[in-house]
Amino acid sequence: MNVVLVSEVDPPQGEQRIEWLLMTTLPISTLNEILTIIEYYTCRWMIEVFFKTLKSGCKVEALQFEEMDRLLSCLGVYLIVTWRVLLICRLGRSQPDTSCELIFDESEWKSTYRIMHPKRTLPKKPPSMNDMIRMVGELGGWVATPGKTEMPGPQTTWIGLQRVHDFARVWKMFGPDAKKTKILV
Questions:
Q1: d(CA 137, CA 158)
Q2: Across the chain, which distance is largest between two alpha carbons, in Å?
């Protein structure tokens, strides 16, 4: 067993120094090997959040299939859903000023904007990723506070995305461009 002690060199004023004691069976003979161990550990929290989303949002532990192939097919779809939820959460933090059309299609952002801002005119250009994710979060029960920099988490994003999906479907069927688009139901 190898042990790596990671200690924050210059913590923010008034904050306690962060220290991690990492135990591993991987080699730690070189600086690159040690940095790899640290990098692996930094991914651990996202992996925990991924599985929590898979369990809480998708409720995979409640699935009761009699055949393994059915369970695996369902799990494959749920893994994609979980990945998308977490991708949206991450993009809201890492690329807040990017156009929301990076992830959301026109029917998703327009219908969501119309629901969240019924008295406003639809903007000509799509909202930023930050603004869209906040709207999605609010649809999922996240409470936006003026000046709040915190973003919605996976659970409220998950719930909000389900509503966005419903709004987009209705937008395609009955919205301003409905005559141009054929919807197969």
A1: 8
A2: 66
Report pLDDT for 180.
62
- Assign residue 62 the CATH number of its domain: 1.10.740.10
C-alpha span between 67 and 142 (Å, rounded): 38
Q: What is the pLDDT of residues 67-76, one digit of tens each?
A: 899 989 999 9
Q: Are residues 27 and 94 in the same domain?
A: no
Q: Distance between CA atoms of 118 and 77, rounded to whole angstroms?
A: 34
The range of the structural domain enclosing residue 23 comes to: 1-8+17-52
Confidence of residue 65 (pLDDT cuts 50, 70, 90): confident
Please give the pLDDT value at position 184: 62
Q: How far is CA 83 from the centre of its chain?
A: 7
Asked if 131 and 65 sit in the same domain, the reply is yes
Question: SS3 for 99?
Answer: strand
Look up the pTM and report it: 0.74
User: Alpha carbon of 56 to those of 60, 164, 182: distances in Å?
Assistant: 8, 19, 35
**What residues are paired with 6 via a beta bridge?**
20
Same domain, 103 and 39: no
By percentage, how much of the chain surpasses pLDDT 90? Answer: 64
